[in-house]
Design a protein that fits this description.
Blueprint (H helix, E strand, L loop, with lengths): L13 E5 L2 E4 L17 E2 L13 E6 L5 E4 H6 L3 E8 L22 E10 H8 L7 E12 L2 E12 H4 L5 E6 L2 E2 L9 E3 L12 E7 L6 H4 L3 E2 L10 E2 L6 E6 L4 E3 L2 E10 L5 E7 L7 E2 L1 E2 L9 E9 L3 E11 L22 E7 L1
Parallel strand pairs: 4-13, 17-24
Antiparallel strand pairs: 1-2, 2-3, 4-5, 6-7, 7-10, 8-9, 8-13, 10-11, 10-12, 14-15, 16-18, 18-22, 19-20, 19-23, 21-22, 23-24
The structure holds ligand MTE.
Length: about 350
C-alpha cells in the first residue's frame, strides 16, 4: 500500500531573489494563522552574516550611564515578554504600484504572523540608564556590505525614537513560535518592533547605542523614506507604522468558478488599533457588504475574514476587500504612489470567471 502522506502537497516560499535571499510566504495558500519558520518570508539586504554564537555578547553603549556587555545567558534569564505580531515588509505588494517602481517586486506575501519571545529593550535600558539628551536608540546588525549608491561598506542599522524603544512590547527576541529564532530570521537575537513595518526589526543584533541626534544611516535616511516625487526628494518622510490593509486568500486571482456559493476568505491587519470591519465587493466596488471577522488572537495579530458569496450568474467578476481600523483608517481605492514603492495598501482585488 502506498503511504497517502507522500501525496500531501506542501506550499513553498516564493523566490524573488537568492543573493541576497528574498522570498515570500505563500500567503494565499496559508490556512493557519501562525506561519511556521520555514514558510516565514525572508528579506535581506546583504549576504547572511558569520557569527560566533559560542561567545556572543551584546554591547549597549552611547549616551548611557552604565555601558554594559551582556551575555546571551543573562538575557535568557531576564523576565521575558511574548508578543504575537504581524511582520510586514514595507515593500509588500510593491509590484502592484502603477506606474511601476524599482526594487524587489514583492507580490502579496512579504508578510507573516507568529509569536516572538524576548526581553523588553526597555528592561536593558533600565539597567544601563539613559543620559540627558538621549534621543534615539540605534540597533546594528552583524550583516554588512556595499550599496550601489554610496562608496562605502555599511552594516544594516536602524534607530527607534526613545518612545518606541521604551515601549514594553518592543523586545530583543530570542524565540519564534517556542523555538530559538532560526539563523535566517536573526539568531541569536533580533529586535521585534510591533506595529512598525519590518525594516525596524533588526536581525542578528551586534550592538545597541543610544544617541543624541537623528540617526542618519542609509537604511534610514535614504531607504525607507516615502518619496512622493519621481524626480526630487521634496516632501520625503520616514516609513514607520503599518498601514491598514487586507489580502484575499481565496479564491485565487483569475480562478474559474462554478455558479453557486463560494467562500471568499482573507486576512486584514493594521499598525494602529484593531481591524473594525472588512467589506467585500463583487461588482467592481459599486456595492459593499461586511465580511465575518474571526476572533483576534492577540493585540498585534492579523484577523481572518470570510464572506459567503452567491455567484448566481455566469460572467467575469472583480472581487475587492477593504479593511478599516479602530483609528478610522480605511484602505483607499488607489495606493499612495511613492518612488521606492513602500506601504502599498489600496483595496485588494482579484478577478474571477463564473461559468
Ligand atoms: N536586519 C538585518 N540585520 N538585515 C536586514 O537586511 N531586513 C529588514 C529587517 N531586519 C534586515 C533586518 C527588513 S527590510 C525586513 S522586512 C525584516 O527584517 C524581514 O525579516 P525576516 O527576513 O525575518 O522576514
Amino acid at each position: 500500500m502506498e503511504d497517502p502522506k507522500h501525496h500531501v502537497v506542501k506550499p513553498y516560499l516564493v523566490t524573488r531573489s537568492l543573493q541576497p535571499e528574498n522570498q515570500e510566504t505563500p500567503i494565499q495558500f496559508m490556512e493557519s494563522d501562525s506561519i511556521p519558520k520555514h514558510l516565514f518570508y525572508r528579506r535581506n539586504h546583504f549576504s547572511y552574516p558569520k557569527l560566533a554564537y559560542s561567545n556572543y555578547f551584546l554591547p549597549i553603549n552611547g549616551l548611557v550611564t552604565n555601558p554594559i556587555l551582556v551575555s546571551l545567558q543573562t538575557i535568557l534569564q531576564l523576565p521575558s515578554r511574548t508578543v504575537e505580531i504581524v511582520l510586514e515588509c514595507s515593500g509588500n505588494k510593491r509590484s502592484l504600484f502603477e506606474p511601476k517602481v524599482f526594487g524587489e517586486q514583492w507580490k502579496k506575501g512579504a508578510i507573516s504572523l507568529g509569536v516572538w519571545k524576548g526581553v523588553p529593550l526597555r528592561s536593558l535600558l533600565e539597567v544601563t540608564g539613559l543620559k540627558k539628551g538621549a534621543k534615539e536608540v540605534v540597533v546594528e546588525g552583524y550583516d554588512f556590505g556595499e550599496r550601489s549608491d554610496l562608496d562605502k561598506v555599511f552594516s544594516y542599522a536602524r534607530s527607534l525614537p526613545l518612545e518606541k524603544a521604551l515601549h514594553p512590547d518592543t523586545i530583543i527576541a530570542y524565540e519564534y513560535n517556542n523555538q530559538p529564532i532560526s539563523f535566517k530570521h536573526g539568531h541569536p537575537l533580533r529586535l521585534i518592533v510591533p506595529q512598525w513595518y519590518g525594516m525596524a526589526s533588526v536581525k542578528w543584533i551586534k550592538q545597541i547605542s543610544v544617541i543624541a541626534s537623528d540617526f542618519n544611516g542609509p537604511f534610514q535616511s535614504i531607504d525607507y523614506q516615502y518619496y512622493p516625487n519621481q524626480d526630487n526628494d521634496n516632501g520625503a518622510y520616514p516609513v514607520t507604522t503599518i498601514h491598514v490593509n487586507s489580502t484575499i486568500q481565496k479564491p485565487l486571482d483569475m480562478a474559474k468558478l462554478n455558479t453557486g456559493t463560494h467562500v471568499i476568505k482573507g486576512i486584514a491587519w493594521t499598525g494602529k488599533g484593531k481591524i473594525s470591519k472588512v467589506e467585500i465587493s463583487t461588482d467592481h466596488g459599486d456595492t459593499w457588504v461586511e465580511g465575518k471577522l474571526s476572533q483576534y488572537s492577540s493585540n498585534y495579530s492579523w484577523v481572518s475574514w470570510t464572506y459567503d458569496w452567491v455567484a448566481a450568474k455566469k460572467g467575469m467578476y472583480s472581487i475587492m476587500s477593504r479593511a478599516s481600523d479602530s483609528h478610522g483608517r480605511t484602505q483607499p481605492m488607489k495606493p499612495v504612489w511613492n518612488r521606492n514603492g513602500y506601504g502599498y495598501n489600496a483595496v485588494d482585488r482579484i478577478k474571477v470567471k463564473v461559468e
